[in-house]
Design goal:
single chain; alpha+beta; 2 domains; 8 helices; membrane; signal; transmembrane
Length: 297
């Protein structure tokens, strides 16, 4: 989260600086168009504000539209390495941040999937066994309605970051002397529109990750990690999973403690401020026999 906040702040500051430069240049050229561009008055001064803003800000980028920010020393290996880092460094950092985004969203989806068992009867999702008692609605870790928008967001953000800042190579030949020599120089270029779009997308990602980082599921069902794996590992007979699904809830009271777990039979609501424990040898139900599939200890 610290790295994400730093990147968001850096991109926001860069967007503000570029917006100030583009706005100043736009206002100056518009105010002094007739005196400075007298010969091109018909072709330049009569252009729309949108076209003129794209010219002074770099527009959406590209080889002919991007604006020059700096130039690297020609014919040096260090310039090659620095050019590679500039062109791919921001996208590499974003890839690291994207891992945190997809990790947090995966946790939330799994917690919601597990927590729904407390409110209604459902089938457990399983990728190893098959049958009508289980649910295999998607093969990947996330459902399609969550995964596909995230993939589209990632592609769009990668593209905007790549267009916002990049390097262009200029190659020319020196014909002086007996043997022509080719020279190469890298130029750092930028474009305002992709930078602003990438900043909005990264700020949205920051807010989403912060919400995911502070997400807390409500209810009495235990947290998933550790609890879910232990409960499923305690299940020995898959035949107990009925086609009607199972639900998590109160399984009745024993001699000392109440019991909670997953059951194919009707379950009660959890009693707050009560002590719950696993199934013991002397447990007995107050509402008839209940088939326990997995239970909490």
């Amino acid at each position: 989260m610290a790295l994400l906040f730093i990147c968001s702040l850096a991109m926001l500051m860069g967007s503000i600086v570029v917006a100030y430069m583009a706005g100043s240049s736009f206002s100056y050229q518009k105010a002094n168009c007739k005196t400075r561009y007298d010969r091109m008055y018909e072709t330049y001064c009569n252009e729309s504000d949108t076209t003129r803003l794209a010219q002074v800000s770099g527009g959406w980028g590209g080889f002919n539209s991007s604006l020059q920010a700096a130039s690297l020393p020609p014919d040096k290996l260090s310039s090659e390495l620095l050019s590679f880092c500039i062109s791919n460094g921001a996208q590499f950092v974003y890839s690291l941040l994207y891992l945190m985004l997809i990790y947090n969203i995966t946790l939330i989806c799994q917690e919601k999937d597990w927590g729904d068992l407390e409110t209604r009867r459902r089938h457990l999702r399983c990728t190893i066994v098959t049958g009508e008692a289980f649910r295999e609605d998607y093969l990947l870790q996330l459902p399609k309605y969550v995964l596909f928008p995230i993939m589209g967001y990632s592609v769009l953000t990668h593209w905007m970051i790549g267009e916002a800042l990049q390097t262009q190579e200029s190659v020319w030949r020196d014909t002086k002397g007996d043997h022509p020599i080719e020279h190469s120089q890298y130029i750092i270029v930028y474009a305002a529109y992709p930078l602003w779009a990438a900043t909005v997308l990264i700020l949205f990602m920051t807010g989403l990750c912060w919400w995911a980082f502070t997400y807390r599921r409500e209810g009495f069902i235990p947290q998933m990690f550790g609890s879910l794996r232990a409960c499923c590992a305690a299940t020995s007979e898959l035949d107990d999973f009925t086609p009607d699904g199972i639900q998590w809830g109160d399984l009745g009271a024993g001699e000392k403690f109440r019991h909670a777990g997953l059951s194919a039979e009707p379950v009660g609501k959890i009693h707050p401020n009560e002590l719950y424990a696993g199934r013991g040898e002397h447990s007995k139900q107050t509402s008839g026999p209940v088939r326990r599939l997995v239970h909490d200890d």
